[in-house]
Amino acid sequence: MATENKAQRTPYDANHVAIVDEGHTITALYIPDPELAKDPRRIVKDIANRQYANVELVATARRFYKKDGASFSGWIVDSGPFDYSDPIANKREAIASLRHHIREYFQR
C-alpha cells in the first residue's frame, strides 16, 4: 500500500512549474495537480482561492519604471520577502534570473 501511494504522488520538482508571462509580471507557480496546470493564468489571478491550496508561488519577476516613481527602470526577481535580485536591465536577463530562482527553490 505504501508503495502504491508513493507511486501516485506528484514529484516535487521544477518539472511541475508553470511560468505565466503577463507582460510586466512573470510568475512561476509549482502546480502539482495536472488538471490545475492546464490553466495557470486563472490561478495567478485568484491564487488566494482555497481550491489552489497545494499551489506554491515559486518566484516572480516584475517590471518597474522610473516614470511610475521607481528609483530605476528594469526588472526585479523575487522568491520571498528577503530573497530578491538587484535591478535587471532587460526581460531576457530577468527570465534567466527567474529560472535560477526556480532551481534554487527546489534545492532547499
Descriptive overview:
The chain has 108 residues and is an alpha+beta fold. 30% of the residues lie in helices and 23% in strands. The chain has helices at 2-8, 34-37, 40-45, 91-105; strands at 17-21, 25-30, 56-64, 74-78. A hairpin with a 3-residue loop joins strand 1 and strand 2. The longest helix is centred in the C-terminal third of the chain and has 15 residues, at 91-105. The protein starts with a helix and ends with a helix. Residues 1-9 have low confidence and may be disordered.
In short:
With 108 residues, the chain is α+β, with helices and mostly antiparallel strands.
Question: Keywords for this structure?
Answer:
alpha+beta, 4-stranded antiparallel beta sheet, 23% strand, disordered N terminus
